[in-house]
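Input/output pair, single chain:
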Amino acid sequence: MIEDITGLLEVWVAGWAGCRGYQTATEGRFPAALRADTSGEWEYFAADPTDQEFAALAAKTAEAGPRVLTILTNDVPRYTELAARHGLNVTSDSQTMMIVDMETQDAEDPWLSDDDLSLSTSTHRGVHYAEVRSGEALAASGRVFVVGDTAIFDKIITEPAFQRRGLGSFIMRALAAQAFEHDVQNGLLLASLDGQKLYSHLGWSTVSRVLMLSSSHDGSDLSLS
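Output:
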């Protein structure tokens, strides 16, 4: 199991960008992604940067209101204070990065116990998709992209009308079954507050807190938006 948060972050950004078709680059030693489908601006990522590195990233972030600086850290007060010092606002501080040993995950295709629901899976440009529908209505969905030996899960969503029916767990199992088409060892994702309960139940553990910063006040959730 990898424990280097900087290394994990680089793999996660590559997989998250792969899931969404984002262009990636680097800013200094840190990864960045162009969020072409939402803000149209760059998002910078860093794990426990030094004060000097944070200052440089904060300056780049402040150049445009929609830009975001996402910090992975377990020292949230330090970076909250640094953000204030450099004129950035905390737009989200409730997400976490989580990891799992894929050997602990079910490799079999799951089955739906509810006859009115159906599963469909597909793959496009390396991204594996899973959807559960009730007739024409989308009930739950998600996607996974493999980088090296790591499966990055993204946009695990259960629609409000279909919540509390175990569909989040079902989608995760359906995606894991597709990820096992590759030689995967680890799974990575960014989890919302609600998602953390589900993933903990499925055997995932928290690696780091996630702090999102911007010169604007717009909130965001990397796991969904």
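The longest strand covers residues 89-101. The two ends are 28 Å apart (CA to CA).
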